[in-house]
Write a structure and sequence with these properties.
The protein has helices at 40-51, 66-73, 88-101, 122-137, 179-187, 201-211, 217-222, 232-235, 258-264, 321-325, and strands at residues 2-7, 28-31, 37-39, 56-62, 78-82, 110-115, 118-120, 142-147, 158-161, 167-174, 191-200, 243-248, 252-254, 269-270, 273-275, 280-286, 292-294, 298-305, 308-313, 333-336, 339-347, 350-357, 365-367, 372-379, 382-386, 389-393, 398-401, 407-411, 415-422, 432-434. The protein is built from ten helices and 30 strands. With 438 residues, the protein is an alpha+beta fold. The protein has a six-stranded antiparallel sheet. A five-stranded mixed barrel has the order 8-11-9-10-12. It has a four-stranded mixed sheet with strand order 14-16-18-19, with helices on one face.
């Protein structure tokens, strides 16, 4: 199975745990079979590999999410990087070119495209595999998955099939309706449009070349910022005369708000939280490392991170976005390909971070023009490289780097350090990278 997972979106609806760098699919709120916390993207990737160990998985995403993907899924997963956001048609076109020119996938092979963040069980991926198998032999250029509706929702578009068979031709598509109209659609056998497409790779490449002037993957990547923003539905689906839809009646949830997310959580608390006996339907996600005590609350979500604290009625939490737009917040936590960092303190001319590196990983070899840095090792062992000189470091060691000094650190075990940045101009953009033979 060739599977493209679309990983986009910003993190406003699940503030304060998500932001432009850390979208909802990277928040660790579920428990795996070992009892360890995992994120939506880790859960989906694990499910895919359970159903099809040989599946080729490519994630189409923005530059800002690449580090988090490598951190959570490792280095083996394929990534089609969008230089900027241009909606789903350019993203799928770029991913298709990546599959052909970088991964060597043949144009006659079937490809399935779906969002990275649905809450589903393994039968969903069994259905995706069947969808790809159908696309490989169907006379229709597109085969879609239609989700059996569980209620007349105003949040989703609808696919109107020609029959109520498991596989049928598509009669028409309908945009997000009112609740009454949605009920009428469902009575006719309509399905939710879950944004899942299957096709032969050559078909989408042909459509991409018809709509975009490009030679190959590298050429399309270079001119990506000049492309029009348009969805795959508008650019391709609406112009295709013959489309098939396959019904899916299993578990499928769009966890786009705190209300829907807490419905799928397998425990009432992630992080340290206490509830008295009069609490009812209360969920806490706490990343602060201090206790949260809830008393006498009903239908409430509490979320705490270094970027803020949310206390909300669950239904009201759906309307968070306008309020978050008024906040001038700084990213206080981020996952990188080598580990993660959390900002502990910010002053006018200093910033203090706690940095965690995974075993065998390292930062880029880099320098800063406008700030000095001091590292204090608080756990683990590793090696620092400062202006080309390598030395071992362990707990209690202190390393000082002046502005302009080239430096990196390599973790031999999991390694934690406190980084103090000192300077009048402290900025994430003040970084120059260099080549180094690790």
């Amino acid at each position: 199975m060739n599977l493209v997972l679309l990983s986009g979106g910003s993190g406003q609806r699940l503030w304060p745990l998500s932001n432009d760098i850390r979208s909802k699919q990277f928040i660790k709120i579920f428990h795996n079979e070992k009892g360890e916390l995992e994120s939506m993207v880790q859960r989906v990737y694990r499910q895919i590999k359970t159903v099809d160990t040989d599946a080729t998985v490519t994630i189409a995403t923005s530059k800002s999410q690449v580090s988090a993907i490598h951190n959570q899924l490792g280095e083996d997963v394929g990534i089609s990087v969008e230089p900027c956001r241009r909606d789903t048609f350019p993203a799928i076109a770029l991913a298709a070119a990546y599959l052909k020119d970088v991964q060597g996938v043949g144009e006659e092979e079937a490809v399935v495209v779906c969002p990275v963040d649905p809450y589903v069980e393994n039968d969903y991926f069994e259905a995706l595999k069947a969808l790809g198998d159908r696309a490989a032999v169907s006379s229709a250029n597109l085969v879609l998955m239609g989700i059996e509706p569980t209620y007349p929702s105003e949040k989703y578009g609808y696919i109107i099939p020609t029959s109520k068979d498991n596989l049928s031709k598509v009669s028409m598509f309908k945009e997000k309706p009112t609740q009454d109209v949605a009920a009428q659609y469902i009575a006719q056998g309509a399905l939710w449009n879950g944004g899942v497409f299957a096709f032969k790779l050559g078909y989408v490449l042909k459509r991409a070349h018809e709509l975009i002037d490009f030679v190959d993957y590298n050429d399309l990547f270079d001119k990506y910022d000049t492309l029009n923003k348009i969805s795959f539905d508008y650019a391709v689906v609406e112009h295709e005369p013959e489309i098939e839809v396959m019904r899916f009646a299993g578990t499928w949830k769009d966890l786009g708000t705190w209300n829907t997310l807490t419905e799928a959580m397998d425990s009432h608390a992630v992080g340290e939280a206490l509830f008295n006996q009069t609490c009812d339907n209360v969920h806490v996600v706490n990343e602060l490392g201090v206790p949260i005590l809830c008393m006498g609350l009903k239908d409430v979500v509490v979320s705490a991170s270094p970027e803020g604290i949310l206390v909300s009625d669950k239904e009201e939490s759906s309307y968070i976005k306008p309020f978050v737009n008024t906040l001038d917040t700084k990213v206080m936590f981020a996952e990188k390909s080598w580990g993660s960092f959390r900002i502990l303190d910010i002053e006018d001319e200093s910033q203090t971070l706690k940095v965690t590196l995974m075993p065998g990983h390292h930062m880029n070899y880099h320098s800063h023009q406008h700030r000095d840095e001091v590292w204090t090792i608080i756990s683990g062992e590793g090696r620092t490289v400062v202006d080309g000189m390598e030395q071992k470091v362990t707990v209690g060691d202190v390393i000082t780097m002046a502005a302009g000094c080239r430096h990196t650190i390599i973790a031999d075990t999991e390694l934690q350090l406190i980084e103090v940045q000192l300077g009048k101009e402290i900025s994430v953009d003040d970084k120059q990278k260099y080549d180094y033979e690790f």
